[in-house]
Task: inverse folding
């Protein structure tokens, strides 16, 4: 299958799906977390797929492409931190923590591979 849009990327689809799951879960966080953990985990998780979409549109320019992929990678790592806080604050259980942490590790790995081979993505 030819990739015509960022929406065709498995990494984008996974990042988007997880960010939506985190959004739904974060609705159950305490109101006291509204402007801290809730806001941060929503922002960083959404930013992964948003930066990946932007990277895909900049793929003609390897340095810009790589920079946006690295932004996505950083946001994925940040999301892992917020998920860890959610776990340690008992807002999510260990199974959910393990699943999301592993998912973001896989996303990070795919972003690193994409960035190491920008020529595979240019047109």
Result:
């Amino acid at each position: 299958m030819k990739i015509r849009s960022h929406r065709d990327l498995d990494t984008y689809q996974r990042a988007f799906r997880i960010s939506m799951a985190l959004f739904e879960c974060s609705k159950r966080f305490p109101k006291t977390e509204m402007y801290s953990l809730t806001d941060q985990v929503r922002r960083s998780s959404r930013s992964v797929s948003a930066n990946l979409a932007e990277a895909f549109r900049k793929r003609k320019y390897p340095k810009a492409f790589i920079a946006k992929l690295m932004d996505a990678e950083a946001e994925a790592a940040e999301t892992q931190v917020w998920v860890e806080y959610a776990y340690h604050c008992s807002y999510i259980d260990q199974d959910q923590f393990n699943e999301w942490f592993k998912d973001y590790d896989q996303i990070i790995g795919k972003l690193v591979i994409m960035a190491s081979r920008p020529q595979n993505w240019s047109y």
Summary: The chain has a mean pLDDT of 96.
